[in-house]
Amino acid sequence: MSKLIPTPGQTVGPFYGYALPFNKDNELLAPGSAGSIRLQGTVYDGAGEAIPDAILEIWQPDADGNVVQRTGSLVRDGYSFTGWGRAAVGNTGVYTFTTVNPGPTSPVPGKPGAAPFISVAVFARGLMNRLFTRIYLPENEEALAADPLLSSLDPERRQTLIARRDADGGLTWDLRLQGGNETVFLDFEGASR
């Protein structure tokens, strides 16, 4: 029996405005809702220039660490936390989401909670395949130090995955696709072998 070879990737995009966006796609819950925060940042290329046409998707648990398992995450009803969102980057490379601080998804009995994070997929011109990464909350240094992914990285690289807390309680996290201070990206390809 012959083994099937995956079809090679193609450059993602261009993204067509009539087919991709949907109403309130970057709002995992309504702005101003109890516990809502703004997650924002800028996407940069290898030369340090802002990328004006990338798309980010995020998935995350709610503030209690519960992963949404209901259908209908595309339906933005104004009060339900959906756990998923998509944001197109603006002309200045800036993206924004309205979300909540994620809770830890796998606390171990008798030990501090796991480091909460937001999963991110990046689509941009010039990429043959989407990229995967994470955004960690800056608090709870003990949980960050114990996180399997973060503890496997050099301290400088680890910092590319940790957001900054803004004065208003929101988060800022910049994404660098290449070059100095490049964001750590995850490779899931070998996980199934």
Account of the protein in words:
- With 193 residues, this protein is mostly beta strands.
- The chain is built from 3 helices and 9 strands; from the N terminus they run E-E-E-E-E-E-H-H-H-E-E-E.
- The longest helix is centred in the last third of the chain and has 6 residues, at 141-146.
- The strands form 2 sheets. Strands 1, 4, 7, 8 and 9 form a 5-stranded mixed beta sheet that branches. Strands 3-2-5-6 form a 4-stranded antiparallel beta sheet, with no helix packed on it.
- The mean pLDDT is 86.
- Strand 5 (117-123) and strand 6 (131-136) form a beta hairpin.
- The chain has helices at residues 141-146, 148-151, 155-158; strands at residues 36-44, 55-59, 84-88, 94-100, 117-123, 131-136, 164-165, 171-172, 175-176.
Number of helices: 3
N- to C-terminal distance: 18 Å
Major sheet size, sense and barrel closure: 5 strands, mixed
What share of the residues does DSSP label as strand, in percent?
Answer: 15-25%
- Which sequence of SSEs, written as H and E, runs from N to C? EEEEEEHHHEEE
Shape category? globular
Which structural class do the helices and strands define?
mainly beta
Question: Which bin fits the share of residues in helices?
Answer: under 10%
| Average pLDDT level | 86
Question: How many runs of DSSP E, i.e. beta strands?
Answer: 9
What integer value in Å does the Rg equal?
17 Å
**Low-pLDDT residue intervals, each spanning 5 or more residues:** none
